[in-house]
Amino acid sequence: MSIVLKKISDPWTSIGTILGQASINDYTFYLKKFKAKKGDIIAAEAKLPTGEGKVIDVIVWGRIMEIISSNDFLPNEATKELTEENINIMDTILPLTKNDSICMVKNLGYTKNSIGEKLVLLPLNYPVAPGGTVKYPANKDLSALLNADMSSKNPIYIGNLVARKDVDVFVSADNMVSRHVLVIGMTGSGKSVWVRRAVRELMQKQYPILIIDPHGDNLGIVQKAKKLFPNHSIKLFYPKISAPKNNREVIFTLIEKLGNKLTEPQYEFLNWLLTNIDYESGTSLLHYINTLIQRANAAAANKRSKSSSGQNGPSHTGASTMGVVSRSLRKVERKLKDMERDNKSNMEKFPHLKFEELPDPYSQPEKIIAKSQVSILYLKGYESLPSSTIVSILLDSLFSHRSAGNRTIPPFFSVIEEAQNFIPSKSEGQSDYPSVSTIKKISTEGRKFGVGLMLVSQRPYRLDETVCSQMNSYIILRLKNERDQRFVKNTMENWDNEEAKQLPNFANGQGIVSGQITNIPLTVQIKFDDDLTNADIGDEDFIADVQNWKESEKNKKKKILSKNLDKVFEADQRRPH
Amino acid sequence: MPANEVIIKPQNNTSLFQEFIKNSTKSPSRKAQQNFLNIITSVADIIKKICVSEKLIFDVSYDGKKYWQQAKKYQAIFIDGGVYSSFLSSSAPFAIRAKSYIVKPDEVLHKREVFEETVKFVGDLYDADTSLFDLSEDPYEDNQLLTKKKDAARITFETAAIVRHIFEKQKFEYCFLHGPLQTPIMPFSGPEFPLFKKNVIKTILHFFKIDESSDLDRHFINVYLSSINYIKKSKYPIFGIVERTGSTIYLRNLLFVAQRKGLISEADYDKTIGLIKRYKINDGNLFEIILKDCQALRPLEVQKQIPSKAWGEWQNQMDSFPKVFVSYLRTNKNQAPIRVESLSFPKKLAKDFEYILATSKLLPNYGFPAGLDIIDKAAKIPSWLGKTAKGYYLKYYLNLALQSKDPTTITTALKAISDGDRKWKNRPKAGRLPR
Q1: How far apart are CA A442 and CA A437, in angstroms?
Q2: Closest approach of chain B CAs to the CA of A73, in angstroms?
Q3: Rounded to an integer, what distance in angstroms lies between the CA atom of residue A416 and that of residue B201?
Q4: pTM for the structure as a whole
Q5: Residue B345: pLDDT above 70?
Q6: Residue A469 CB partners (closer than 8 Å, separation 6+)
Q7: Chain A contact for B99, CB < 8 A?
Q8: Residue A118 has what pLDDT?
């Protein structure tokens, strides 16, 4: 006679029994040897009271946060003797098979336990009963739980559970593009693995993407995606610092901060220059600074010659003060030119990639944001303040187009790499960086206008707390720094200390996915899109570089001359001692 | 006087308090304690000389890693018993087991070690149907007979476990019992001590041929004697190991041997025995002074059952018990030596003691064979189980009383389960709000 299954959990394997005390939030259970591991999602069969006075069969889902193994029959002093005397325990009479494994479980919620019920997770309001059975859910049922309702949210595939490779994990694309994501992890933890995965899936949905890339981590996407997505437009931009008239404060800040520290009268003169010399919207900043220098020099010359022709600046400002301001502006000009040159020389390392100057985001936003287009802004070579200014101007312009509701550009998703450079925390002393207020605005209002953010950082404790608190979803990869771990704990709601313990131990591409993009927080192995990586853009091989190093002809000559000169210097007897 | 100085006011019993503190700090029985020290060191010196003269002290070798590499092929059995009993007014629930830890280190993991419940019994000592013993009058006060029944059961079950292993031809190189291999059984020879029930003997020692018509075959002393003789006939090295011994059995027999051999006079023998009694010198504290780490005493053959201490007809039976070979082994620098007992002189004394020492060295501080420590933990009936079981018994009894609906019966039951007139139920209420 065949057995008729009534409960979803009937065919699942029993793996343990619930111990003495259980609460709404957690419980412990005795685990059969090797039947589950840390991070596994397991299920306890339980009964819950309903509002109508009934009691129903449910599955209480939980995650194994910790497993403690003990052997009551193996005294500590025995292990001391084994160690001191270098004895193999296998040779002795000490027991090896009496290990007990106790699992600590954090409850995730419950679902009804009858065949045909949809596995929708509900908050638990009654603890599981001690003595109850804990089971290992089947792949298909677990997958159904994790991805329930996902079809209505544009699911995107991100990988599989770390603890169960057969269980695929999807996240909600809708919530990702509209409600912001924070991606954190130390170097080598797999941030790029996640970014490639997310970008690829959004590209398949033709969603416009803007990537702010200070180090060129995403250049691989350009080359490979062109082949993989021939119908997509992949744009690679280098920056041009320009600003519209109504946002020239950012330019002021940049000049003020990149230049020398000025005294009150010097600052007054700089302010006079900036106010009296109009900035032509869309033109290059370098051109504008050059104009400022010329005007400052002219004013100083006029002061010295006591000429009254032209604008000489404030009457009480002396020529020397003007000269100092001019020097400061020249310094700004030189710095910007240096950065522009560095950026260019970095671009030259990738001759096969086509870099274009960033179009004016005010007048030509459609060239940056368009359906099926990925735009990457390559910022390598630029210091953090100019980068912040560039990003601020760019995002502010694009956001204003969206918020104006004139349908110039479609909704889009911005990926900001090295986010600590753009939204530094107050403690970094750079909270007046222009990008801070822009990103803050998008994080609070972006959802309404279809502007999504994905902030990527390896130093979360250096991020602005207000912006981080607006992030609705989190991808937390390997973190070893205690301050970073503390930041995660302080920023994320419902963060558990047990979860924090896992952070230093994640492998590349492993992490916790949490927040509105997923039904429940999950420990996931993110799928590695190796076809989107570019071998040319990996870590530089300095050792090979040195091994292949050849002295330049110029250096050789220089050395010979130096040697000859040394001889001359030695022969010099008139040199004072 | 400084403002913050606190004065401790003397209590009413100031004189006793002050004298006691003065004594404890300045001269805590100096004379008596110095005297004890002198006596014990002097006795130790004499006993050591006798031991040396009789060549009783020998070294036991131990080379941890090397030893275990060659000893891993030995299969060993470690046995211990666990008892739960609760003597309530209404019932005497009783559970007993003897467990065995059978281990052969070089065997594959799933066969390497077995924890086996070799003999077990659950019942009620007040219930004619489920008791271990026939019911009998208790001539004592305060559950003395119940305690004796419990001890007899434990001794029988532990010995039965060894017998079973021998009978079932369990292969082993060594077998160890946690406790003495032969216990003095004179206290069980009283006329009031009941017989084991027939079915109990059939269950735990089913292979013994019992004369159904002879009640005496079911008496604990005879059952025990049969088991002991069965063990003695066995070819295997079987030892009982005792920790924390207060016994003087080796010391007395050693002095007796010395007197018999003319090493000490009969008068000195008597005086020394008196001294040992007065100063409470025992094998443990004396041989701790004499033996060094990894030293042992050659076994002495001793008689454990003293006919003159047994009741009536049982006196003759005492001589039927085989003599026991008793020895001491010092297993570390911190603990008193452990007592090793066997029913025959160990055929391979050095080899056997090396094994006992090596298993004890696995617990370098405790200095007791690790296998026996392991089985001790495994055999023990956990207190949570005992407490829970007791709770169920009491609840059941109260329920029976409640069903009677008679207030007096209920009150009496409540008093009974509250464990005596002086316990919580009957204490005067004061200073607390009623619950």
Answers
A1: 9
A2: 5
A3: 83
A4: 0.70
A5: yes
A6: A491
A7: no
A8: 81
C-alpha pair distances (Å), A262 with each of A256, A288, A324: 8, 20, 8
The CA distance from B328 to the nearest CA of chain A, in Å, is 22
- Interface-testing mutation among A93, A96, A99, with chain B (most B C-beta atoms within 10 A): A93
* The amino acid at B348: K
- pLDDT digits over A181-195, tens only? 999 999 989 999 999
Is the domain of B239 the same as that of B367? yes
B115 touches A: beta carbon within 8 Å:
yes
Query: Are B222 and B135 contained in the same domain?
Result: yes
A-chain CB neighbours of B362 within 8 Å are 78, 81-82, 92-94
Give the count of alpha carbons within 13 A of A438, CB side only: 25
Residue B266 lies in a domain: no
Question: Same domain, yes or no, for B320 and B408?
Answer: no
A93/B contact by beta carbon, under 8 A: yes
Does B299 lie in the same domain as B400? no
Give me the interface pTM, i.e. the ipTM.
0.82
Q: Tell whether A148 is within 8 A of chain B (Cβ).
A: no
Cβ separation of B72 and A72 shorter than 8 Å?
Answer: no
Distance CA A67, CA A33 (A): 11
State the smallest CA–CA distance between residue A17 and chain B in angstroms.
Answer: 18
**Domain of B415?**
385-425
What CA–CA distance (Å, rounded) separates A230 from A236? 16
**What CATH number is attached to the domain comprising B72?**
3.30.2170
Rounded to an integer, the average pLDDT of A114-123 is 85
DSSP for A413-456, please give it.
EEEESSGGGTSB-GGGT-TT-HHHHHHHHHHHHHHHHTEEEEEE
Residue A170 to residue A185: CA distance in whole angstroms: 20
Instruction: Please state, as a whole number, how many other Cβ atoms lie within 10 Å of the Cβ of residue A272.
Output: 19
CB of B310 less than 8 A from some CB of A: no
From B87's Cα to the closest Cα of chain A, the distance in A is: 28
The number of residues making up chain A comes to: 577
Is residue B274 assigned to a domain?
no
Looking at the structure, tell me whether residues B109 and B62 fall in a common domain. yes
Q: What is the C-alpha separation between B196 and B198, in angstroms, rounded? A: 6
Whether residue A449 is predicted with pLDDT greater than 60 in this model: the reply is: yes
Angle at A251 between CA A250 and CA A257, to 5 degrees: 90
Each residue's pLDDT tens digit, A42-68: 999 999 998 888 999 999 999 998 899
B340, B403: one domain: no
Find tokens 């009031």 and name the residue.
Answer: B192
Domain ranges of chain A: 13-146, 155-239+358-537, 245-337
Residue in the block written with tokens 């004179």 = B186
| Dist CA B303 CA B326 (whole Å) | 10
Q: Least CB-CB distance to A91: which of B105, B113, B115?
A: B105
Q: Is A335 helix (H, G, I), strand (E, B) or coil?
A: helix
pLDDT tens by residue, B369-378: 999 999 999 9
Q: What is the mean predicted confidence (pLDDT) over B208-233?
A: 86
Give helix A249-258 / helix A384-404 axis angle, nearest 10°: 170
Q: Which residues of B touch A19 (CB under 8 A)?
A: none
Strand, helix or coil at A188? coil
pLDDT at A212: 95
Average of pLDDT values for B351-370? 96
A95 to B103: CB separation less than 8 angstroms, yes or no? yes
| Same domain flag for B126 and B144 | yes
User: In the predicted model, is pLDDT for residue A235 greater than 70?
Assistant: yes
Fold for domain A155-239+358-537? Rossmann fold (3.40.50)
Q: What is the domain count for chain B?
A: 2
Size of chain B in residues: 435
Instruction: Select from B362, B377, B384, B385 the residue whose CB has the most chain A CBs within 10 Å, as the one to mutate to test that interface.
Output: B362
pLDDT for the residue A152: 56
* Between A39 and B48, residue with greater pLDDT: B48
